[in-house]
Amino acid sequence: MSTTSSTFNPGKGNGEPVGIAILGHGTVGSEVLRLLNKYEDDLVHRIGGAFELKGVAVGDLAKVRPGVPKELFTDDAMELINRDDVDIVVEVIGGIDYPHEVVLAALRAGKSVVTANKALVAAHSAELAEAADEAGVDLYFEAAVAAAIPVLGPLRRSLAGDRVLSVKGIVNGTTNFILDAMDSTGASYDDMFAEAQRLGYVEADPSADIDGHDAASKAAILASLAFHTRVTSDDVYCEGISNISATDIKAAQSAGYTIKLLAICERLIDDNGQETVSARVHPTLVPRSHPLASVDKSFNAIFIEAEAAGRLMFYGNGAGGAPTASAVLGDIVGAARNKVHGGRAPGESTYASLPIADFGDVETRYHIDMEVDDRIGVLAETAAVFSDRGISLRTVRQEEGGEDHARLVIVTHKAKESDLAATIESLNNLPAVKAVNSVIRLEGE
Ligand code: HSE
């Protein structure tokens, strides 16, 4: 495998090629290596200078890696990072603690960093951005959100002159696969989760996908860039999909909706004009006519609304080796170009420092499915619980339940999370209510 190009070589100004080190050789790292080699001649022209792969750090040197010269591998990441001829460090290891250590070391050693690690960026953005600023180097992470879909670049650059109002999207392919399969086949959550696992979609720690943590990290990154405010994964309200049943999917279908796990980042403005930022991840009913409803299988899509630009939608592959490597390569070209020609990528901007909204103050609509006694006056008793909290009902549908009970499906107008939570508590204490089966938020109208 050739790792050096001599076709075009102004290098970094001193005639030396831009040195690249890769940390990790898993699904993404091996694809980055393959594509760097495959597109080498083109990349040299796009960078405007030669580059050279200096090494690949791995955990297990004994593992057989066909097609890659053995001498490229090392198990000493720190030594590789600190080499004088390494200018760009590409982190594709995954996890948080060890990548945190090596990425910080790389930035502090004056190396630009390209990472695909959403959990790392969402947890430690402040420290990493500060280290990059102090060293005057680049920190790129396009692949961390929705892999191949270019969404961070547009937020950082193309929309830098606009005012973003909201970013809403499907940013986890595994949960979208499961919900889409439940929607199209009527199958149970457990069966479709097993199918997603069989196909290799689910992360080694399934909770990252199904409990929404992966999407929450991405929401934190999107909200930070959209609202020029530091948002970490701890600021994101997060609910996963494991409680979604085939009955919920069917109820959604009969009302004209589909259920998606959405990451929702919004700029909220209260009655006094105070702006806050809300970032949340939860299963959401989306009208079938909404563009996000047609995002099927394991695809991702992000919907951005900005004051001047209006509505923008980004769609594509949000996971997988090659799609993630595509975004990593784009960042490598950007960082390498800056090494050759000077200048830096647009960095983090958190000047707005908007407060994070209290989740109880967030307003949305709700779809509530419950079992009630089937007798005179129950509808009025139930409706009174909502009106006591100032929640207005949009639709009420009663269906036959069992022998002595009925199924009531209520859709509310916009209401505050805190009021809705109190309403559900009161409903659970109302003798006429046998069970509140599900409460699912509703977006997109
Ligand atoms: N597990 C993630 C997904 C991979 O399903 O989208 C990309 O972060």
TrEMBL record:
GO terms for biological process: methionine biosynthetic process; threonine biosynthetic process. Pfam families: ACT, Homoserine_dh, NAD_binding_3. The active site is at residue 218. Its EC number is 1.1.1.3. Its cofactor is a metal cation. NADP(+) binds at residues 23-30. Residues 367-441 form the ACT domain. L-homoserine binds at residue 203. It catalyses: L-homoserine + NADP(+) = L-aspartate 4-semialdehyde + NADPH + H(+); L-homoserine + NAD(+) = L-aspartate 4-semialdehyde + NADH + H(+). GO terms for molecular function: homoserine dehydrogenase activity; NADP binding. Keywords: Amino-acid biosynthesis, Methionine biosynthesis, NADP, Oxidoreductase, Sodium, Threonine biosynthesis. Pathway: Amino-acid biosynthesis; L-threonine biosynthesis; L-threonine from L-aspartate: step 3/5; Amino-acid biosynthesis; L-methionine biosynthesis via de novo pathway; L-homoserine from L-aspartate: step 3/3. NADPH binds at residue 118. It comes from the Bacteria. Catalyzes the conversion of L-aspartate-beta-semialdehyde (L-Asa) to L-homoserine (L-Hse), the third step in the biosynthesis of threonine and methionine from aspartate. Belongs to the homoserine dehydrogenase family. This is Homoserine dehydrogenase.
